[in-house]
C-alpha cells in the first residue's frame, strides 16, 4: 500500500489512554481502526467474526495474554500468519525485543507512540492483491504434487475461485 488510505489496523492494548492515543494517530493518518483491550478479543474478531485487517499493533504487557503470546498464535495460524504484527511496549528490554522479532514481528515500538512511529507503519502494510494471490496459490498448490508446474497450480486456482 502506498499510503494509509483505507488501510485497516487492529490495535490491542489493555491501557485505555494508550489505546486511544494510537487510535487517534492512526485515524489522523487516514486509517480505519478497530481497537480492543485484550488478545483474546483480537483473536475472536479475527477468527469467529472474520475481521480483515492490514496490520496488527499490540501492546506487549497485558494481563491474560501477552503481546508475545498473541504474536505466536497469529504466526502459527494458517489464516492470520500473513498479517504483519508490530509490538509496542514502554519497557526497552532487548531480550524481549529480539524474541518478538525472531517470532515474526515486523517491528517493536517504544511507548509513547509518536506520529513518526505511525508513519513508518505503512511499510509493514500487506498488499491485499499480492497476499490474496499468495493465499489462493498456496491453497491450490497444497492439493497438487510438489513437482506440479506453476501453470497447473494457477489453473486449479482459477477453477476454484
UniProtKB/TrEMBL annotation:
Which residues are recorded as modified (4-aspartylphosphate)? 59
Task: Determine the domain of life of the protein's source.
Answer: Eukaryota
Protein's GO biological process:
cytokinin-activated signaling pathway; phosphorelay signal transduction system
The record's CDD domains line, in alphabetical order, gives:
REC_typeA_ARR
Tell me which UniProt keywords the record has, alphabetically.
Phosphoprotein, Transcription, Transcription regulation, Two-component regulatory system
Q: Where is the Response regulatory domain?
A: 8-126
Against PANTHER family, the record matches this protein to: TWO-COMPONENT RESPONSE REGULATOR, TWO-COMPONENT RESPONSE REGULATOR ARR3-RELATED
Name of the featured protein: Response regulatory domain-containing protein
Organism field? Rubus argutus (Southern blackberry)
Amino acid at each position: 500500500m502506498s499510503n494509509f488510505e483505507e488501510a485497516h489496523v487492529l490495535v490491542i492494548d489493555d491501557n485505555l489512554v494508550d489505546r486511544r492515543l494510537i487510535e487517534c494517530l492512526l485515524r489522523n493518518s487516514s486509517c480505519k481502526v478497530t481497537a480492543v483491550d485484550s488478545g483474546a478479543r483480537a483473536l475472536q474478531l479475527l477468527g469467529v467474526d472474520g475481521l480483515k485487517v492490514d496490520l496488527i499493533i499490540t501492546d506487549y504487557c497485558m494481563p491474560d495474554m501477552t503481546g508475545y503470546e498473541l504474536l505466536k498464535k497469529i504466526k502459527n495460524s494458517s489464516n492470520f500468519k500473513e498479517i504483519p504484527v508490530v509490538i509496542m511496549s514502554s519497557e526497552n528490554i532487548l531480550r524481549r525485543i529480539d524474541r518478538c522479532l525472531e517470532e515474526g514481528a515486523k517491528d517493536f515500538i517504544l511507548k509513547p507512540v509518536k506520529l513518526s512511529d505511525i508513519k513508518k507503519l505503512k511499510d509493514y502494510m500487506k498488499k491485499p492483491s499480492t497476499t490474496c494471490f499468495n493465499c489462493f496459490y498456496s491453497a491450490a498448490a497444497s492439493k497438487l504434487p510438489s513437482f506440479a508446474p506453476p501453470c497447473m497450480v494457477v489453473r486449479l486456482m482459477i477453477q476454484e475461485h
